[in-house]
Amino acid sequence: MEIDFALFLLLQIVQIILLLAIASILLLLVYRKIVRPKSGAFKTLIVLGSGGHTTEMLSIASSLPAPLIDDATFLIASTDRMSEIKLRQKFPGAMVKKTPRAREVKQSWITSVYTTLIASFHAMWFVFMIQPDLVLCNGPGTCVPIAYSAFLFRFFLMQRSKIIFAESIARVKSLSLSGKLLYPIADEFVVQWQELIEKAPRARYVGFLI
């Protein structure tokens, strides 16, 4: 069962990367014909995962300096009502955007192939339109297509988004699945437990963020 899941996960990751790469090339062709001027304001994209991830990320966002949060856009899953409620309580006037989930709770792995593709293309278009200077995320799966879209656009020299991933405080001795997927591409990988440095040598230990 674990082998089947690992193989399925690997195939999904390869599929997403290939499709996003192809889509990035197509958008690059469009981008060269329609170059949209970027506004002078620093744009931060903050991805709210759900549940405890949302609580942690809102705590992190509250500690950000004004230039990083004033023009921030918060991205949540379209079915995640609780995160939107928490966000409105913390930042009443925040700019909120919604994205399809790659996989719902208890959704079968087979049907999640389709929903992952939809989420990936939506993420790609969303990042292309917003052109964030900073992508801040902490998992779970909602942030993976967003981060990889930002990475691929940067690879093709279309945007220069910096990606920061903050591992959840719940991860003490091992990285989360999102952390494992984003560790290779994150510009800064933050952990809240020093034990994780052994698993991710490039990570930066910052102590508790909440």
TrEMBL record:
- Which stretches are transmembrane? 6-31, 108-127, 139-157
- State one Pfam family annotation: Alg14
Return the InterPro entries for the record: Oligosacch_biosynth_Alg14
* SUPFAM superfamilies hit by this protein: UDP-Glycosyltransferase/glycogen phosphorylase
Task: Name where it's found.
Answer: Endoplasmic reticulum membrane
Q: What GO terms are given for molecular function?
A: N-acetylglucosaminyldiphosphodolichol N-acetylglucosaminyltransferase activity
Q: Any idea which UniProt keywords this protein has?
A: Endoplasmic reticulum, Membrane, Transmembrane, Transmembrane helix
Protein topology in the membrane: Single-pass membrane protein
Gene Ontology BP terms: dolichol-linked oligosaccharide biosynthetic process
Gene3D superfamilies per record: Glycogen Phosphorylase B
Please state which protein family the record places this protein in. Belongs to the ALG14 family.
User: What's the name of the protein?
Assistant: UDP-N-acetylglucosamine transferase subunit ALG14
Originating organism:
Guillardia theta (Cryptophyte)
Read off the lineage from the record.
Eukaryota, Cryptophyceae, Pyrenomonadales, Geminigeraceae, Guillardia
